[in-house]
Write a structure and sequence with these properties.
179 residues, alpha/beta, Ribosomal Protein S5, domain 2, four-stranded mixed β-sheet, 5 helices
Length: 179
């Protein structure tokens, strides 16, 4: 995160786990319109391409963000490979941020699995992830509502936890609009 440039659209920090150890990683996305008739390219570095395709479909159906005529590039900075679904929300927020050219707040981390219905699902060891985010100076976290009440607030003092039940709620909390 040392080289992270706050204020850049398409960038968000996600607390993940490497084994049992919490690790904060930057997820980046870039979208670019293509000419009609040209098939758009999809590229995922450090992410499952199938998961990217699924989340693009969820964004189109549940958040009304059509990227069908856009190239989409997604990357995890630093060569880290994310295999757990806890990074779903981060990827979605990075994609919306990139598509709308709206930066995300620099003090924000997000974590959560996104279901096909656009619902946010809890992730394992949420308190441990949030404690690491607080330790590194982040002050806001958007997490699944189902996990917010289970996290131990004393372990992540200084971090405001904002629960969201759906992708749409999370986008609003991240100050992103898809209109």
């Amino acid at each position: 995160l040392a080289d992270r440039r706050p204020g850049t659209p398409g960038s968000i920090v996600v607390p993940t786990l490497e084994g049992q150890r919490p690790l904060l990683v930057e997820v980046q996305a870039l979208t670019n319109p293509v000419s009609s008739g040209v098939p758009p390219r999809r590229s995922a570095q450090g992410l499952d391409p199938g998961r990217l395709a699924m989340l693009l479909a969820v964004l189109e159906r549940r958040a009304r963000l059509s990227l069908s005529q856009h190239e989409v590039y997604a990357s995890v900075v630093g060569g880290v490979k994310l295999t757990e679904p806890s990074s779903d929300l981060g990827l979605c927020i990075a994609l919306v941020s990139a598509a709308t050219n709206t930066p995300t707040p620099s003090d924000l981390v997000v974590c959560g699995e996104v279901g096909l219905g656009g619902e946010l699902r809890n992730v394992a060891h949420l308190s441990r992830r949030l404690a690491e985010a607080a330790r590194l100076g982040f002050t806001r976290a958007i997490v699944p509502a189902s996990g917010a009440e289970k996290s131990k607030p004393a372990k992540h003092a200084g971090l405001t936890v904002q629960p969201a039940g759906s992708l749409s709620e999370a986008l609003a909390l991240a100050q992103l609009s898809v209109s």
